[in-house]
Design goal:
The chain is an alpha/beta fold. Helices cover 37% and strands 15% of the residues. The protein is built from twelve helices and 13 strands. The strands form three sheets. The protein has a six-stranded mixed β-sheet with strand order 11-10-9-12-1-13, covered by helices on one side. A five-stranded parallel β-sheet has the order 6-5-4-7-8, with helices on one face. Strands 2-3 form a two-stranded antiparallel sheet.
Amino acid sequence: MSRRPRLLLLLSLALAIAAACDDSDADDAAGTSTPATEAATAEAGTADAPEPAAGTEGDTEPADDAGGDTITVIDATGEVTVPRTTEGIATLEEVSALNLLMLGVTPETSSLFFQEPFPLAILDAEGVPVNAGEGELNVEYIATLDADLLVAINHPIITELRDPIFQGVAPLVITDFLANDWVAQLELLAEVTGTEERAAALIAAVDQQIETLAADIDAAGMTGSTFSYLFANFDGNLQIPNGGLAVDIIDAVGLVRPDSELAVDGADDFEPLSIELLGEHDAEFMVIGARADAELDPTIPDLRTDDGVDVVTNDWGWGVENPITALWIIEDIRRIVLRGEEPLAGDDILDIWNRVLALPDSTS
């Protein structure tokens, strides 16, 4: 049986995050600041932010103003002591808000740092009030929050403002988003919120979903089928991922990536790939992830058209490290490899979200 290759363009929040983080890391290494960091720092200096609480300036263990139990944990910045609570929590960006919601904890408010449409749809459905700056972190708003606990990821802009601004608002716990380990992020927040059992059930359920897909692919005789996964950065240049959730799932379900992609696994950086060399990644199935505003090479939609390639555009991607994306990737692979169907579209986000919320009960 012959199978035609499929070229899928998936638009990704994660790629936007990864590119922003990579840019910030590169600037830090060079001793400079990114424009976004400079803007946020400048805003922080002019905002009517409260002075840091006594004893918190330069301290890794913020004072506990919330009362009740506290817990000492190791977060992305080191050892911190924060309230152990499910109430009075504000998140500084959408990723943390979604992680808490998956644990059954509803933040009182969330800032919109990345301002992508799919997290907003979920936060709106869950009734979480949001506040958005004009394309950057709304430091002035955060400085006025009346919260018992702040939760955030370790984006360089956020960690840079940790001591001068955020520690004066409320104790802050920062998860290590840059490590691309969604399990560790959930487990840390579960410790802080006392939801360890739900986190363990959610992690086990995702593993079970991957195992089920692997069994279905094997039963269909598709184990060993070649599957290429690339992504386009902001300027549209193609790159080979050096790992991540999507790569892990592709491998775990019995699909095989081209040798040139396997060669960069675990590398320190992504491997660039010119459009002329894309033929080396010829596979039975191919996914190219890109954010909506990436300046894709205009020839990409025309690649392999003689072979009847399908070109599909979505407003969701494969790069975010969390159970939402895990289910999205699993469903897309099932549709593409086993059913010959189109992948999910942005309008499917709430359906996937409801399936994520039901996952912990699926293993009981």
